[in-house]
């Protein structure tokens, strides 16, 4: 195999330099804006968002991928029930996140957002209380624009402080903040206003910047949010899923505890991919330290879907305390190796076959950061077995089409 990681490095440098020039104007105005924001209170200078959240990538569920606008308080409560009854909550899936379409089109006469009477008649405080009583957390959605993407409810642009206070008063724990209908105002101007508003609202609220990767939010999002989308929306297809993973990988160096790259929510269980493809989806999200937000109907999980999303060994890779996002370290045609360090001098490795035929793929110690002559123990996280032989110099496996292997490698001598 030819190694492309070396050849790739200069391209990335050129890209970043070119991008820095393009961003100069934006950065200057954003910087003066941030200085202005930082000087108006005791807020942290380096990082506007000091909420202590997202030490590991968030885990939970979001309504959009399966339900889009067809949401109501009954199904949100049933989903909270299901998170507990399926055992998912014990594995770390804690957020119940309501996406677009939860509010009336008009604010009330005081300018407050109003939950949609026909679908959320009990209101958001009651729903938050219900979710909290189950030991879970609740997330909500707004938009750094005049309307949300559905255009069925207002966005928060110009109402940031009022809406942040409303969310805090309801007991909201997580805000997904979208990018539609934004009046062509730069995101580096719009997003910090909500960050500051949340910091003033008196409740730690995870802030998920949903800027779609338009202006490379990995380069500025860490000061403003706990995660930032690096891509446009995912859909339930192999091409969409794998291309989100690729786009997200470019920014691997910017992820860290407290701030994560977000290639969008999971489609596992929605029916558009094969079992192997969903295993690739879950494996890549896990090693990429992506948010693990389930996007299917949890009230009737199939055995197959449940087996994928409850794999505790794979979840542990995602939640590893080191918090380092894996990278694509070797690629030849359709065959790829993705790898990233874990705590305890271990390495997580995905052998990924994107092509139409079964093929052998090798992880070379050289590529994945293991010293050359190390003797290595390999744990297969989907087979749940520790391989009987140990390995020197490389680990090679045969991988089916649109499938992957996921190992933890541990040097033992
Ligand atoms: C909400 O809807 C119910 C009927 O579903 C109606 O009786 C009630 O007046 C509505 N409340 C508001 C504030 O519109
Ligand atoms: C899903 O995304 C892929 C790739 O991004 C695109 O080609 C396809 O048209 C999309 N499918 C749907 C149903 O939107
Ligand atoms: C899943 O469960 C919900 C609620 O029980 C039900 O409305 C829905 O039709 C079910 N879907 C399938 C595919 O069985
Ligand atoms: C893997 O390493 C072994 C030595 O342990 C060597 O014989 C073999 O050729 C290597 N295979 C690949 C594909 O690099």
Automatic annotation (TrEMBL):
The keyword Mitochondrion does not apply. One of its GO terms (biological process) is carbohydrate metabolic process. Residues 1-30 form the signal peptide. Its EC number is 3.2.1.22. Residues 332-409 form the Alpha galactosidase C-terminal domain. GO terms for molecular function: alpha-galactosidase activity. It catalyses: Hydrolysis of terminal, non-reducing alpha-D-galactose residues in alpha-D-galactosides, including galactose oligosaccharides, galactomannans and galactolipids. SUPFAM superfamilies: (Trans)glycosidases, Glycosyl hydrolase domain. It is an enzyme of class 3 (hydrolase). Keywords: Disulfide bond, Glycosidase, Hydrolase, Signal. Pfam families: Melibiase_2, Melibiase_C. Belongs to the glycosyl hydrolase 27 family. This is Alpha-galactosidase. The lineage of its organism: Eukaryota, Viridiplantae, Streptophyta, Embryophyta, Tracheophyta.
